[in-house]
Design brief:
Number of helices: 10
CATH class of the largest domain: Alpha Beta
Order of helices and strands: EHEHEHEHEEEHEHEHEEHHEH
Shape: elongated
Strand content: 15-25%
Bound molecules: glutamic acid
EC number: 6.1.1.-
Enzyme class: ligase
Number of domains: 2
Keywords: Aminoacyl-tRNA synthetase, ATP-binding, Ligase, Metal-binding, Nucleotide-binding, Protein biosynthesis, Zinc
Motif ('KMSKS' region): 231-235
Family: Belongs to the class-I aminoacyl-tRNA synthetase family. GluQ subfamily.
CATH superfamily of the largest domain: HUPs
């Protein structure tokens, strides 16, 4: 993988999948990652994670990028799309195959059902036409890391995850592979994202170790949940944020990030809101929980805020 020409002390990113419009949960994550990057005098990049065409909605990527611009969250580098980066993923997988760290697999989901979906060795039925590529997870593989917000996390990858997919049997790249390759290739030092991805992080660290890549710092922000306790999601048509009236949503996202004391209540445009927010931002106040109910954010304000 080519070394980046510069080595920033902080480079973060927001990497939405184009499965629907930007909603309040994704705005909160975007604002949180932007504030942390600006607080560290670092860079903030946007990347489009369009790896899974069947789940994507036409025009969603352009809509999300336009919404981010309307919220004043401007990328510091040209936006890259994962759909254009297959050659990088292929060379990473080729290397893992050559080194015997990855293997071709014909096991289907139903083959693995009796093993809780966990793959430890091929079951030899080989009925399926397409072959997936999996990372071999050695017995006893455990990964521990300290998350910037959620504290110490340990996962027994062999017991709880097993050999995981890098390239699907239908030829699509798996998120775990693409995100690791892209974060390294783009020189990311700090991964700030929703806590729903906390469980994926040990897989990504194992993959970084297999590819001899540096592990970035991780910080997982709480996700915003609906009345049923489910994460607001782009694909479940959570109410999109109104890019035409961005200030109320920015104020609500600020509060969802545990932030108070914004002297610029008078800020009447997005640029001045963000200029004030970046100076008032207190990372120590970020909530150390994995989720926050949307109702809790609403209750602190009028319900039209988001
Ligand atoms: N593409 C993922 C999403 O939209 C985020 C992946 C990441 O930040 O690592 O939820």
């Amino acid at each position: 993988m080519p070394a980046m020409p510069d080595s920033p002390s902080y480079r973060g990113r927001f990497a939405p999948s184009p499965t629907g419009p930007l909603h309040f949960g994704s705005l909160t994550t975007a604002l949180g990652s932007w504030l942390l990057a600006r607080h560290a005098h670092g860079q903030w990049w946007v990347r489009v994670e369009d790896l899974d065409p069947p789940r994507e909605i036409e025009g969603a990527a352009a809509g999300q990028l336009a919404a981010l611009r309307a919220f004043g969250l401007h990328t510091d580098a040209p936006v890259e799309s994962q759909s254009q980066r297959g050659a990088l993923y292929q060379s990473a997988v080729d290397r893992l195959l050559d080194e015997g760290k990855a293997f071709l697999c014909q096991c289907s989901r139903s083959d693995l059902a009796a093993h809780d979906g966990i793959h430890h060795h091929c079951l030899g039925r080989g009925k399926r036409a397409g072959k997936a590529i999996r990372l071999r997870v050695p017995e006893g593989a455990r990964i521990s890391f300290v998350d910037g917000l959620q504290g110490s996390i340990t996962q027994d990858l062999w017991r709880d995850v097993g050999d995981f997919v890098l390239k699907r049997s239908d030829g699509l790249w798996a998120y775990q592979l693409a995100v690791v390759v892209d974060d390294a290739d783009q020189g990311m030092t700090d991964i700030v994202r929703g806590a729903d991805l906390l469980d994926s992080t040990p897989r990504q660290i194992l993959l970084q170790q297999a590819l001899e890549l540096t592990t970035p710092r991780y910080l997982h922000l709480p996700v915003i949940t609906d009345a049923g306790g489910n994460k607001l999601s782009k694909s479940s048509a959570a109410i999109p944020v109104d890019a035409l009236a961005p200030l109320p949503a920015l104020h609500a996202a600020w509060r969802a990030l545990g932030q108070t004391g914004l002297p610029g209540r008078a800020a009447n445009d997005v640029a001045s809101f963000l200029a004030i927010a970046r100076t008032c931002f207190a990372p120590a106040q970020l909530p150390r929980s994995r989720s926050i109910p949307l109702a809790a954010v609403h209750n602190e304000t009028d319900t039209n805020a988001v």
